[in-house]
Amino acid sequence: MATWFDGIKSFADVPITANGISTQEFLEAAESLTTLFDVMQSKAFGVVKSDLTGNIKKVRDRFVAAPAESQTLQELVINELKTGKHTATEGLLWLVRGLEFTAKGLRHNIDNPSTELADSFRNAYGDTLKPHHSFVVKPLFSAAMSACPYRKDFYARLGEDQGKVQDGLNREVPALEERVRILKEFLSSPQAKW
């Protein structure tokens, strides 16, 4: 019996090397994760998904333009900044913020089994994206948080076998958290500044 996790590229399969996090696999995993917002079955989440996919495209465009110097996300940023541009670097910064929001929302919900999804994602939004959003964007994201499905419905949509769903969450969320932590640390370092 398949779950949502069976159809995605897992962050657990994204290599972390001495040179950084593999760009190609990371982008594939991030694209897979955006389908989680389809599982929410709310048009309000279109803004969240669109934000993520737009930033994935910025990073991918740089990767396609300069693959040899973009094998890891860290190399991509360092080499892009040498050119005097920062489109992909800024895209990665916002992508990491969006992924952190998603990871924190899921983590809060896993750790608090009686909490509704809307509350978990509302808390995550306040901790991650909200401080960086303008007064124009904040209401759009607030509407998305309010449109979260009920917890029981969301987990049922992830898969019928709830044991497999829990196994998927227990694999995916820590892997996502680890890669977000590494990238946040790198993006706040002097070598990633523009």
From TrEMBL:
<keyword id="KW-0813">Transport</keyword>
<dbReference type="Pfam" id="PF08718">
    <property type="entry name" value="GLTP"/>
</dbReference>
<dbReference type="GO" id="GO:0016020">
    <property type="term" value="C:membrane"/>
</dbReference>
<dbReference type="GO" id="GO:1902388">
    <property type="term" value="F:ceramide 1-phosphate transfer activity"/>
</dbReference>
<feature type="domain" description="Glycolipid transfer protein">
    <location>
        <begin position="21"/>
        <end position="160"/>
    </location>
</feature>
<dbReference type="GO" id="GO:1902387">
    <property type="term" value="F:ceramide 1-phosphate binding"/>
</dbReference>
<protein>
    <submittedName>
        <fullName>Glycolipid transfer protein</fullName>
    </submittedName>
</protein>
<dbReference type="InterPro" id="IPR036497">
    <property type="entry name" value="GLTP_sf"/>
</dbReference>
<dbReference type="InterPro" id="IPR014830">
    <property type="entry name" value="Glycolipid_transfer_prot_dom"/>
</dbReference>
<dbReference type="GO" id="GO:0005829">
    <property type="term" value="C:cytosol"/>
</dbReference>
